[in-house]
Design goal:
The chain is an all-alpha fold and 97 residues long. It has four helices and no strands.
Length: 97
């Protein structure tokens, strides 16, 4: 099987990759980059190609898709607000904004 061959993936995995790819393209990624990211996401969640049939293979881990493209937010709302205020004060003081 040549590299990049998608024949070992189930129809569900192919549909999932197509859906993820569309999302990346809507957010401005090129078609090639969106396709690459989509298949990387499918592979991360399902561990590669699964055999079709009820109860075959491992269950999917949806941790990567549950984030939904959101950036990691560290700290509480108050901590982030304080950091933003501090940055604004520094920029104002230095004349950079």
């Amino acid at each position: 099987m040549p590299r990049g061959d998608k024949s070992s993936y189930t129809d569900k995995q192919k549909r999932k990759a197509e859906h993820i790819e569309e999302g990346y393209e809507k957010r401005g990624a090129s078609h090639a980059e969106a396709e690459r990211r989509a298949w990387a996401t499918v592979n991360k969640e399902s561990g590669g190609g699964n055999q079709s049939g009820s109860g075959r293979g491992k269950k999917d881990n949806h941790a990567s898709s549950s984030r939904g493209g959101k950036a990691h937010k560290s700290g509480s709302h108050e901590q982030r607000s304080a950091a933003a205020r501090k940055g604004w004060e520094t920029r104002r003081k230095n004349g950079n904004g």
